[in-house]
Amino acid sequence: MLVGFDSVNELPIFVHRFEFKTFMKKRMYWGAILMAILGLASCQSSDDKKAPRKDFEVGELGRQYLREGWTLCPNTDGVNGQRLSTVGLEGQGVETTVPTTVMNALVQAGEIKDPYQGTNIKEIDASRFDTSWWYRKEFDVVEPKGNVLLNCDGINYRANVWLNGKLVADTSEVKGVFNRFSFDISDRLVAGQNALAIEVFPPKAGDFTIGFVDWAPTPPDKNMGIWREVYLEQSNKVGMKNTFVHTDLDEDFIDATLTVSTELTNFSGEEVSGVLKGKIGEHSFEKPYTLGRNESKKVTISAEEDSVLFMKEAELWWPHTMGEPVMHDLALVAEVDGKPSAKEDVAFGIREYEDYFTKEGHRGYKVNGKKVLIKGGGWVDDLFLGNTTEYNEAQVQYTKHMGLNTIRFEGFWGTSPEIYEICDREGVLAMVGFSCQWEWLAYIGGKKFDEADDAVGGAIDEKWEEDLVADYFLHMTKWLRNHPSVFAWTGGSDRLHPADLEKRYLDIIDQENPGALYLGAAKMHKSPVTGRTGVKMYGPYDYVPPVYWYTDSTHGGAFGFNTETGPGPQPPVLESVLKMMSKEQAWPVTSSNEMWNFHSGRHEFGTMKRYLGPLNERYGSSKDLETFCQLAQVQNYELMRPMFEAFEVNKPKSTGIVQWMLNSAWPETYWQLYDYYLYPTGAFYGTKKANQPVLLAYNYGDQKVYAVNETQEPRNDLRAKIKVLSSDSKVIRTEEKQIVLDPDGVMDVATIGEVKDKNKLYFVSLQLVDVVDSVVADNFYWLSTKPDVMDHDSTGSWIYTPTSQNGDLTYLQKLPKTELSVSHQINSKDEGKEVVVELENKGDKVAFFVELTLKGKKSGEAVLPVFWSDNYISLLPGEKRKVTASVSNKALKSDELLFSYSGMNLK
Fold first, then answer.
1. 352: helix, coil or strand?
2. Cα separations (Å) of 770 from 648, 713, 715?
3. More confident position, 662 or 57
4. Backbone angles phi, psi at 708, to 5 degrees
5. d(Cα 642, Cα 702) in Å, to the nearest integer?
6. I need a surface site. Which of 282, 597, 605, 816 has the fewest CB within 10 A?
7. Nearest to 512 by CA among 479, 477, 485, 484
8. Which of these, 834, 868, 831, 863, lies nearest to 678 by C-alpha position?
9. Does residue 351 sit in helix, strand or coil?
10. How far apart are CA 585 and CA 17, in angstroms?
11. What is the largest CA-CA distance in the chain?
């Protein structure tokens, strides 16, 4: 039976570290599936000589994750749940771990080769995924007693669940990608080996599933599978789930009031009394409870009942740009007859979010009473949902390293809470919500609705559909509400959800997550229930020059909160390109090159034509693939940096900016600050430069220099140094000025104005130095005397705004050579290697766009992830610079580290 149902499937919150182990490399042979002892069919690998692994010791309270030892096979004639959930079957299938989609399992097992290379993914026979697939596992139980639940946090899309030859639940009960399921299997467990078989059915057209929209190709299996954790949960007479710590700060944001709640269920069949005991740090509290026969109820302990839950001068959770992300731990135990019956451990943070509106009507956010400029990127999971712990860790660390404070999770919500645990720990805000996957006919398919109605609903129309999506919202609320990083819960993406559904969302928040901030949509709309969204989604999503962000006043420019936008493609470096396609396929790079187009976005973004035209006109044509990849990084840096800088400079008129996107689902050229292989692009270092805690920024619109302070402390100890140089590196003008910056302040420093140059190129060097003349922040711009001119009155759209004139930066390919002195030292640290590089420009010309690289000696490949303090560096004549980098031992893989460098005009 399913347990925990009220109006929806309510299941426990849990905190864990999700590990993907190395997958077994074993080829499948489907004909063997029907050959099994006793005439039974199985997709389990035979291993009779091994002692059965003890997966679950009944009597040990808590959870046991069923991650390893699964086999996977497609449904064929003669295969059924009763047979597959019989202990001791032999046969052959793909050995895998869970969670995994079917495609991910096949790729990891070597059954499908190199799906990300070239156009290989198009050659995969998608019809093999039209049938259901079976996941099978045996696990050991010692002396079954007490109560055991089988929990599954995510199945895409429907399933039949069998245990020991008996049906536990069928597809009428187990359906919906964001629903979480719990089955009471206490009376079906046996001593010794138990067999579990789960038949998973793929989503159909019209189902409310996940999808990659125009970000990536559709996976051949449509991400069918057990895509989130499966685990057993042991309790005795009383079970516990959905433990929650609600925090509330006083008006001065100093003292905190905590409220702890949990849901208890009496499995004993008779009235039970006990004590709920909790501990936070050194502080303990408790409360008696009584449950009737088979009763479930929420038990709450407030600060009014126990003063321990009132914390004076509480240690608060902050985004990393504003303070320390302090976490706290709750241990909660339900006792019966003086003995533990159930327990949960919950990590939480104490913080308070508020939203506000500017006088222009734009929504902004506050953390613990202080305004925060949201600066982030849009997240997407791996195309086959195969994210590993290391991959997730690296991406959040990259986000933090770039100075961003937010990740927007649209539509996936992650394959486990792990990604939110990392955000909690690192102080990165999370914006969560549903995807536009359901809001457009091309993506959900199989539905009929008025796509021209750009305000409400999309595919959500009938009552059962509202019920399903409301269940989703409740499940995700209970799943993630303890994570302090989550600051906004979004209903729709491009559209509002129906009014009745929004009312249900608000009821869920009021009952289950009081104080949480709901946002009706990520686009500018007005809801009859929740009012103005106050955020915008007017683009651009494709190429716009730097001046756009400072001069646009109607679409994506630096005002308000732009929930998704960006300057379009960010082609990767040469090494990554050659992993995606062969050199012959990659060259020449044109808007008609089939391979480049296949690895672009989809629909309107199926080519890079809007990017390539300006690249060739502004920087000059590329003689070969190497030159193209180098120039692409220059343009990536140039285009990305001013977007973030403009939103900084325009505070408080600007309240938030989310780059579309942070990462990529597969190897591609569009919407990424680092590529699929974790190689940072020019856009990565342009973003990092723009998000220095204090900085000087050049405004492409009014040609002025602004000082920006993102910290919460005043800065009056800094001095600005400004230099303007000609294309032949001669100093045209210099200026110095004392800086006085309020917390989170902006200051107009100087005007650069018009510059003339015979080669139509000049440079601007900006530095902030402290009282002892040490550089605190620096910035370097390459600018054209022929400006980029926006055609704001054209027929531009949400995709982009065209230009009526492009600038001229072609002289960068003709810069005179200069000599660079470079030394480096590699130091061993506990967790990896640190590299210290000292650079000095010995020549009398600017050393332009110097790239520093770390590779493995044996592999010949870049060591990734890598964390450079700065990269793609330009140095004035005589200038010195010291930069550092770190890589982990895991990234190095026992290889020897090699350092190299290159630049546009080095001898």
1. coil
2. 21, 15, 10
3. 662
4. -130, 135
5. 13
6. 282
7. 477
8. 863
9. coil
10. 41
11. 92
Q: Which amino acid is at 687?
A: T
Question: Which of 189-218 are b and which e, b meaning 16 or more Cβ less than 10 Å from the residue's Cβ?
Answer: beeeebbbbbbbbbbeeebbbbbbbbbbbe
β partners of residue 278: 285, 332
Dihedrals φ, ψ of 859, to 5°?
A: -75, -30
Query: Is the bond preceding 157 in cis, omega lying within 30 degrees of 0?
Result: yes
Instruction: Tell me the two tokens of residue 799.
Output: 């995709």
**Which residue in 105, 93, 104, 113 sits closest to 29, CA to CA?**
93
Indicate the pairing of strand 654-659 with strand 374-379. parallel
Beta strands 715-726 and 731-741 are antiparallel
What pTM, to 2 d.p., does this model score?
0.93
Q: Does pLDDT of 37 surpass 90? A: no
| Whole-Å CA distances, 58 to 153, 245, 879 | 21, 28, 68
One DSSP character per residue, 495-523 reads SBPPHHHHHHHHHHHHHHSTTPPEES-SS
**DSSP assignment, residue 604?**
G
pLDDT per position as a tens digit, 483-533: 999 999 999 999 999 999 999 999 999 999 999 999 999 999 999 999 999
- Show the CA angle centred on residue 41, arms to residues 38 and 47, nearest 5°: 80
Q: Which residues contact 785 (CB under 8 A, 6 or more apart)?
A: 754, 755, 756, 757, 760, 761, 762, 808
Q: Which residue has the tokens 């008779």?
A: 270
Q: Which of 871, 788, 885 is nearest to 827 (CA)?
A: 885
> Tokens for 648?
């900084």
HSE of 482, CA atoms in CB hemisphere, 13 A: 27
Q: What's the pLDDT score for residue 581?
A: 97
SS (H, E, C) 51-88: CCCCCECCCCCEEEECCCCEEEEECCCCCCHHHHCCCC
How many whole angstroms from its chain centre is CA 498? 27
Q: Minimal CA–CA distance to 347: which of 247, 275, 428, 263?
A: 247
Cα–Cα distance for residue pair 71/97, rounded to 1 Å: 8
640 phi/psi in degrees, rounded to 5: -80, -40
Residue in 713, 769, 17 with CA at minimum distance from that of residue 421: 17
pLDDT digits (tens, 9 = 90+) for 159-168: 999 999 999 9
Q: Determine which helix (DSSP H) or strand (DSSP E) holds 614, and give its type and residue range.
A: helix 609-619
Average pLDDT over residues 572-597: 97
Alpha-helix runs per DSSP H in 350-494: 389-401, 418-426, 441-444, 463-480
Cα–Cα dist 799/781, whole Å: 27
**% of the chain residues with pLDDT over 90:** 88
Q: Could you give the CA distance from residue 95 to residue 111 in angstroms, rounded to a whole number?
A: 11
Cα angle 138-139-144, degrees, rounded to a multiple of 5:
130
The pLDDT tens digits for 811-840 are 999 999 999 999 999 999 999 999 999 999
- Give the phi and the psi of residue 591 in degrees, each rounded to 5: -75, -5
Q: What is the distance between the alpha carbons of residues 288 and 337, in angstroms, rounded to a whole number?
A: 12
Cα separation, 568 vs 434, in Å, equals 23
| Encoded amino acid at 306, one letter | D
Closest CA to 569 of 616, 545, 605: 605
Cβ pair 58, 149 in contact under 8 A: no
Tell me the C-alpha distance between 659 and 217, whole Å. Answer: 21
Per-residue tokens: 51: 């002692």
Q: How many CB atoms sit inside 10 A of residue 564's CB?
A: 27
Contacts of 15 (CB under 8 A, 6+ apart): 345, 346, 347, 417, 421, 482
Strand order from edge to edge, sheet including 147-152 = 62-65, 230-235, 147-152, 181-184
- In angstroms, the CA 222 to CA 227 distance is 12
DSSP per-residue letters across 439-477: TSHHHH-S----TT--SB-TT--SHHHHHHHHHHHHHHH
